[in-house]
Write a structure and sequence with these properties.
Layout (H helix, E strand, L loop, with lengths): L4 E7 L2 H17 L3 E5 L5 H10 L15 E3 L7 H10 L5 E5 L10 H10 L2 E8 L7 H8 L2 E2 L6 E2 L3 E6 L2 E8 L4 H12 L6 E11 L1 H11 L5 E4 L3 H13 L5 E4 L13
Parallel strand pairs: 1-5, 1-6, 2-3, 2-4, 4-5, 9-10, 10-11, 11-12
Antiparallel strand pairs: 7-8, 8-9
C-alpha cells in the first residue's frame, strides 16, 4: 500500500474554507477515493452546494455511510476504524479534512500522522489564521509534510479573489458598496499587461448592478473580458450592461442562455 500525505493550510475566511476544502473533497471523489469529514459545525451545506455547482454530486445529494463523502464523529480514537473500513470496501484511497475552530494544535494531528505513514490516506488540516497562537505556525510546519499555500489576492470574508494562472477567480458576494473589493479586481485585471482578461465567476453568488456596471465599464475595454461559468442571473445582468457599453467586449463561456421570462436581477 502506498503512503499518503499529511498537509495543513491556513485560512483567512469562511469563503476560503469552502473553496479549499471543497476542492480537496472534489479531487478525492474524482480519484475514486472515500472522503471523511469531521467537525464541520454547520459548514456542511456550503460544501455540498459547492460540490453541486462543480458537478461532483447531483442535486439533492446528501452524505451517508455508503457514499463517497462521509461525515465522521469528531473523535480521533474512531478514525482508524473509519479509514480501515473504507479501504476494506475497495476505495482507491481515503481523504480526511474538516474545520479546525479551536486554538492550538488539533487533537486529530496525533491520530492522522501514523495513518498517513501506513495507508493511502491523504489529510488536509485547515486552520484559521485568526485562531493561531504565537509560534503555532512553526509548530504546524514541523508536524506536517507540507503547507498548502492558499493565499488570496483579496479576501475580506465576504468576497474572495484568487488567481489560477492567468485566470482570476471571483467568489462570494460583490456589491457596489465594497470599493476595496472592486479596486482589487480591477488592479489584478490590469496587471495582465494588456492581455485579454478572463474571470471565473462560478463561485460568485451575488453581483449587484452597480458593481457589474463598474466592472464591465472598466475591465472590458480592449482587448476584452471573458467570464467563465456565470450563473443565469449573472450572465443576464452582464449581457444587459454590456449593451450600455458598446465599445466594451464581454464574452460568456459556459454560461446558460438568456431567458427573458426569468425574474429581474437585482
Amino acid at each position: 500500500m502506498s503512503r499518503g500525505g499529511h498537509a495543513f493550510t491556513v485560512l483567512d475566511s469562511e469563503e476560503a474554507h469552502t473553496q479549499v476544502v471543497g476542492d480537496f473533497v472534489a479531487e478525492g471523489v474524482r480519484r475514486g477515493e472515500c472522503v471523511l469529514l469531521a467537525g464541520l459545525d454547520g459548514r456542511e451545506q456550503r460544501l455540498w452546494s459547492r460540490l453541486r455547482r462543480t458537478g461532483v454530486v447531483e442535486p439533492g445529494w446528501e452524505p451517508s455511510a455508503t457514499t463517497a463523502v462521509r461525515l465522521v464523529p469528531p473523535d480521533p480514537a474512531r478514525l482508524v476504524d473509519a479509514v480501515e473500513g473504507a479501504l476494506a470496501e475497495g476505495w482507491a484511497g481515503v481523504r480526511f479534512s474538516g474545520a479546525i475552530t479551536t486554538p492550538g494544535v488539533n487533537a486529530f494531528e496525533a491520530a492522522v500522522a501514523p495513518l498517513a505513514a501506513e495507508y493511502p490516506f491523504t489529510v488536509l488540516c485547515p486552520y484559521f489564521r485568526s485562531l493561531l497562537e504565537p509560534g503555532q505556525h512553526e509548530e504546524l510546519t514541523a508536524l506536517h509534510d507540507t503547507e498548502v499555500d492558499v493565499a488570496a489576492v483579496y479576501d475580506d470574508g465576504v468576497f474572495r479573489l484568487t488567481r489560477r494562472g492567468e485566470l482570476l477567480c471571483l467568489a462570494g458576494e460583490l456589491d457596489s458598496g465594497n470599493a476595496d473589493a472592486l479596486r482589487a479586481v480591477l488592479q489584478a485585471t490590469l496587471a495582465g499587461g494588456g492581455r485579454p482578461a478572463s474571470w471565473d465567476v462560478t463561485e460568485l453568488r451575488f453581483l449587484d448592478v452597480g458593481a457589474a456596471d463598474s466592472l464591465v465599464a472598466a475591465a472590458a475595454g480592449p482587448p476584452g473580458l471573458t467570464l467563465v461559468g456565470a450563473s443565469r442571473l449573472t450572465a443576464r445582468l452582464v449581457r444587459l450592461l454590456a449593451e450600455r457599453h458598446p465599445d466594451r467586449t464581454v464574452d460568456l463561456v459556459d454560461a446558460p442562455p438568456d431567458d427573458s421570462a426569468e425574474g429581474a436581477v437585482r
